[in-house]
């Protein structure tokens, strides 16, 4: 049994996906990892199929990788972050292999690299075909469990970051229904994204933006919250006449970008192609959404591309398809877009530092500037590992004050009562196609719940920043502002700055402050 008193003063890492575990493993300090579920059980990293992007091919360079990343990011990437993270890619793959990750290799021993959408070179390293995330997490979980200086609290979820005298003083969590307090001067938020706030998603159930809410309530700046990537090709068994309805809010199985990279074609029920399969994800997702809205079915046809060997190349996807009676070697796969990745998040520098002293962030919870308005496929695992390492290095060099006692104040339980309503509101207003009326209605409905409901808080901030961005760019598409503005502007928001707008929305007649959230 873990002695919680003995953990006081250690850095606390909230989240146990790739970013959180990388941070723990790559730092030298003793630390604490809060994992809401058993390690790897509810992590988006485990579900990652496509692989990890790195310029390790003979005709590839980090500069080419950076160029592709900047092009996909539609003008909102931070070039310094892009250069640093893509430059670290080859070493990251080598480090993961050193930690025990068994990457796929060709018969001659070279890495088996794949092409994905918007990449100019085959640079995606896979493990177990489409099981890359699961293999990486297997190796890292084994290392974490074998590392005595890392204390893992499974079943523990971050609820609040305590700030005193302008800096982090501790964390409040819940574990088995009980309040847990850990005094600490350093907290790393690696809790993942917001995909589970949408009705149709590939994200695990825990991807509700809880870390973003904790950071916002602690005073941190959030950046580019409006940019959500919808993966174009999530498995859509409901399109089959014989299919049962999609169960509950379970994540949709992803049909990886790599399937299209291998030559699979997007067709409708007539067999006609209707879009460029390897265009950026936002372009493909909108094309599929429009085709579905016009009454068509959308299918991914891999029959010719994989020559009867689909299960050998994509074993996980094959299992998901076969569970619904779909044989990809004989049948086109029904697909539809689903919320997949959040480009926005807690604003950080390249060390992972946020605007709150003592608070770091990495992985999907962070906004480093790598992805801009649209993430390049397979850059997320790269960012999670590399930036976890950056945070670890920064923490090892940090002089952390001794924390004082943390009050065991009441911690509100997770707000599940309104979650279905939040999902419906966010999904309708902030989906692939957005407009002012829908965003305003959703923000107005969410605003009264923001003080006490973290789900409503994250949904409201997402809708507010989307409402204030009067253009279409990357993953943010406004039907009432379909053009891209000539000037590139980053959105930054804090809870303090959002309160006047939220209060106005909650009032009977709302008149919103204009341009308050975009800087």
From TrEMBL:
The keyword Aminoacyl-tRNA synthetase does not apply. Keywords: FAD, Flavoprotein, Oxidoreductase, Pyridine nucleotide biosynthesis. Residues 458-484 form the Fumarate reductase/succinate dehydrogenase flavoprotein-like C-terminal domain. Residues 12-381 form the FAD-dependent oxidoreductase 2 FAD-binding domain. GO terms for molecular function: L-aspartate oxidase activity. It catalyses: L-aspartate + O2 = iminosuccinate + H2O2. Gene3D superfamilies: FAD/NAD(P)-binding domain, Fumarate reductase/succinate dehydrogenase flavoprotein-like, C-terminal domain, Succinate dehydrogenase/fumarate reductase flavoprotein, catalytic domain. The keyword Flavoprotein applies. GO terms for biological process: 'de novo' NAD+ biosynthetic process from L-aspartate. Pathway: Cofactor biosynthesis; NAD(+) biosynthesis; iminoaspartate from L-aspartate (oxidase route): step 1/1. Belongs to the FAD-dependent oxidoreductase 2 family. NadB subfamily. Its cofactor is FAD. Its EC number is 1.4.3.16. This is L-aspartate oxidase. It comes from the Bacteria.
